[in-house]
Amino acid sequence: MLGSHEPKAYRFKVDGQQFESMNQVISGLELRQLAGLSADTELYVDVPHGWQDHFVSCDDQVDLGKPGTEKFITLRKKIVIFVNGTPHDYKKEKVSYEKIVELAHVPVQATAGYIVKYSNGPRQNPSGLMSPGTEVYVCNKMDFNVRSTHQS
């Protein structure tokens, strides 16, 4: 039939694994979601011939309609969180209240509770308080402050 077009799938590769999108232009966030990338992974356009690879932020718009298959590479980024001013390497997407209290190395007392405040967090949870049994998303340079509620 004249005039009938099947939707075109735009193919791209991330670390050699092939994916496709029905949209020619997609955001960096959509690329990350389609490829199943975790929060601690950075995405780059794989620029050939020794040129510097281009970082793709979640807000960037990427045109997959160029000739050939668009290629991307990933790099796990280092996340450092600060607990009571002490830096800690952290590799997970979320952290629990219990883990933050453990990292704080505060004196453990049977009657003590803890107040955990955080700031400089990601958009999901930029700042706030944690309570036992809760988790928050983490990002690089996030600050946690742990204080005992036990009064002597």
Give an account of the 3D structure.
The strands form 4 sheets. Strands 2-1-7-4-5 form a 5-stranded mixed β-sheet, covered by helices on one side. A 5-stranded mixed β-sheet has the order 9-8-14-11-12, with helices on one face. The protein has a two-stranded antiparallel sheet with strand order 3-6. The chain is elongated. The chain has 152 residues and is mainly beta. 11% of the residues lie in helices and 41% in strands. The longest helix has 8 residues, at 28-35. The chain contains 2 helices and 14 strands.
Could you give the order of strands across the largest sheet? 2-1-7-4-5
How much β-strand is present in the residues? 35-45%
Tell me the series of helices and strands, N- to C-terminal: EEEHEEEEEEEHEEEE
Distance between the termini: 84 Å
Q: Tell me roughly what share of residues is in helical segments.
A: 10-25%
Helix/strand structural class: mainly beta
The count of β-strands is: 14
Largest sheet: 5 strands, mixed
Rg on CA atoms, Å = 22 Å
Number of helices: 2
State the low-pLDDT regions, or none.
none
